[in-house]
Amino acid sequence: MNVPDEYMYQAINGGTLIGRTEPDRHSKYSWWQVYWFEDKALAVVFDEENGAICAEEVLTTEALSSYVDDVDAALDVLEHIRNGDYHK
Known about the structure:
Blueprint (H helix, E strand, L loop, with lengths): L4 H10 L1 E5 L9 E8 L2 E8 L3 E8 L12 H13 L5
Antiparallel strand pairs: 1-2, 2-3, 3-4
């Protein structure tokens, strides 16, 4: 599900980064960053020329592996957020 640009920028500026992929030549040097914002995981695609391009909601834990390189680390951050013991 795509999200509006305004909401995407709110997530980037006010959310918590929980994971990302590294850019490489296969992705044409674009990458994903996943933010936890308003009880939702939002995956934002970035590229070197344009910055943030678009975002979509990550609806399942299984889908998270498409948007982050280290799923276990992302899930660990989420657990700490949900427990209230994670600080930016």
